[in-house]
Amino acid sequence: MVVRARLVAMQLQKARAQVGANRMSDTSAEEVPSRIAAERGSDSSHNYSAVVLYYKLGSSVADTIDALMNQTHPPSNVIVVDNASKDGVLATVASRRRDLTVLELDENRGYAGGMNAGAKAIGDSTPLTLFLTHEVVLDPNCLRNLTRGMSAGKHSLVGPVLKRGTTGKVWSRGGVFTRWGGVKHILDDRSQPEVQWIDGACLLVDTAKFRDIRGFDEDYFLYWEDVDVSARLRTQGTIGCVDTARASQETATTPIYFQIRNQILFWRKRGKWVPASLAAAAALAKIFIRDIPHWRIKVIEARVRGLIDGLTGELNLDLASLREV
Predict the structure, then answer these.
(1) pTM, 2 dp
(2) How far is CA 68 from the centre of its chain?
């Protein structure tokens, strides 16, 4: 089933290949859950729905979707949000899978906007909602263990241990704040610090509590929205990383612009100017120590623009892809 933003609702009749597709406006996305339920039936043991966010990854997104659908504890409903990729990949995926819905957006709304659109389409049909990015491959028992961990700990949010797909090396068991107001991943379970945020690659949330905090904050667009939603869900209950739940994802550093902008924005939204100021000072120090001696003009622009936009809340995507070297 395919949902296409701002197009008139229509349903193709079953063709010889028995491939069906529905298209409706993005504003009527709340109608999707009842249609899914009617087609799939209900199963009380499947207590979560899933939102998968896609953007120009290519055909390997099928690995993510297959791993999700083949869970020992599979989802009740699945929405795959296409963040205006316009590459036709999800149409191919949907043509061979009738057990998912594709929501095509007219513009790239970033992580927060795309996930919120998927959550709106799913509604409150299940007590739990899974948010998954397009390159994450879940181990077969991941959701069985996540849902058990959610119930046992009475959490508002849980996530799996994240490992690299190529090496199997763990790169995140949740995360904590640094003394300077930054963030870092927990790499091992020996010290067992309190988890303060969960990486947005894979999040399982209490649907009602997620609604109560009004979902992801779209001011971030990309990066730090997982830190923000974790902080807000911690006001609704505990959060945690479930050690028996595993998922694979390759990882990279946060783009310079978003790292600076969204760190400052996060603390500014909370009225905490000391960590916001420390983030700004760190950006300026890198400009004078790292960038100016090597005349990295574009990097300097990204840092300065990120610093300014973190203070003002403006969003500029022209320099958003530059990363530290």
Answers:
(1) 0.86
(2) 15
